[in-house]
Specification:
alpha+beta; 6-stranded mixed beta sheet; 6 strands; 7 helices; single chain
């Protein structure tokens, strides 16, 4: 596993993971899938019952084709928001990154080191480990149509990845900004 800074700057604040034997890091992989009409059409056809349940729960009426279009639009918006929030040169926006990611468990109100976190835009999700305020490592992303992550294989996989990355970071001592700065410097 490799930890990849998303924005090259003296003080990156957002990283992503590139798993062994994967060509792309998790951020690029998710955005590529969310912007690929063929991938999305297959996904929503395969998960058509979940889309119906989502529609019923939220009072919406998305068809498969509408869900594909909505996802592509939402992905572009999410990408803009994420990059703007992660840009260290954008000092007035640093709080946005902290606000963009929230604890994975809905009932948690406090923040702490190595906390499992999520960022969402509609049914799109990025999962991450919070290191400190405004320092996160994205572990993966998916389309979440169900209430509970354990209900579907693709969302349950994201839970496994976030646990794997948390263990990795803890074992490598990557638990604060100082450790990440040393990682960047190759110390």
């Amino acid at each position: 596993m490799k930890i990849v800074p998303i924005i090259e700057d003296p003080e990156p604040i957002l990283y992503t993971v590139q798993y062994l034997n994967e060509e792309k890091d998790e951020l690029d992989k998710a955005f590529d899938e969310w912007m690929d009409p063929e991938f999305l059409k297959h996904f929503f056809e395969l998960n058509s019952e979940d889309l119906k349940a989502y529609n019923n729960f939220h009072g919406t009426h998305y068809t498969v084709d509408e869900a594909v279009s909505k996802t592509i639009d939402d992905a572009f918006d999410f990408q803009d928001l994420l990059y703007e929030a992660a840009d260290p040169g954008n000092k007035t926006e640093l709080k946005i990154l902290q606000d963009l990611f929230e604890p994975l468990r809905n009932h948690e109100n406090e923040y702490y080191s190595l906390q499992k976190s999520k960022a969402r835009n509609s049914w799109l999700r990025f999962y991450a480990i919070r290191i400190e305020e405004n320092l996160y490592v994205i572990t993966g992303g998916c389309i979440k149509l169900t209430q509970k992550m354990k209900e579907r294989t693709h969302t349950d996989l994201e839970l496994k990845k976030i646990d794997q990355v948390k263990r990795y970071l803890k074992n490598k001592g990557l638990i604060n900004k100082k450790a990440f700065k040393e990682l960047e410097l190759g110390i």
